[in-house]
Amino acid sequence: MKDSLVIIPTYNERENMEAMIRKVMQLSHPFDLLVIDDGSPDGTAAIVRDLQHEFHGRLHLETRPGKLGLGTAYIHGFKYALHRGYQYIFEMDADFSHNPDDLMRLYHACAVDGYDLAIGSRYIQGVNVVNWPMSRVLMSYFASAYVRMVTGMPIADTTAGFKCYRRKVLETIRLNKIRFVGYAFQIEMKFMAYKYGFKIKEVPIIFTDRTRGTSKMSSGIFKEAVLGVIQMKINSYFRHFDRY
Questions:
Q1: Cα dihedral sign for 82, 85, 91, 94?
Q2: Terminal CA-CA length for the chain
Q3: Sheet of strand 163-166: strand arrangement
Q4: Of 54, 103, 128, 207, which has the fewest beta carbons less than 10 angstroms from its beta carbon?
Q5: Is the pTM of this model over 0.90?
């Protein structure tokens, strides 16, 4: 029975796409894979289409007309997964900064250990980041500390983008109310899961910066996260987080 869907948003990832798809498809658990491509001019979507013949029924593609934001891509993917009955829904980057082998550990945390949200965490056991300049490591680490201070979330890696959700988490969170579209989306989703009282597990991973393609990080994305967290916390005082 198909129970797991890995969602990978893409923009100009042709250098990584085929290798990533083949790696996910070779894992011992039968993960399905959904690529959401935002009109990549480099032909990323064409690579996925070619491989769909080989991985029929397991490899899916949704294309959008342009860069509409990371958050909207994942929301699109979440709705796709819920509509098709998947029980475990994963977020992962296309550039191998997230090791596909760790999908198995995230799956185990939810499907076997009973957690509702499993986070591939860079900071739960020290700092496990490879090939980042020290300035970026410090920015990311202290950004997570800032988010913890403002929100009260007991999560070491609040900006992590490698995750597994149980279906019920995404059914409970009002996806149409998620306001962030950049990397702050990752913070908001964790905050919502935390406020609704779901069980959260951080699974230690080693994060390796991409070796192919171009990073999508920008100062604007970082600014959204820093300034938006306070507003997100204030807004939470005026919401009810009742799961029933």
A1: negative
A2: 28
A3: 59-63, 32-37, 4-10, 88-91, 163-166, 117-121, 200-204
A4: 54
A5: yes
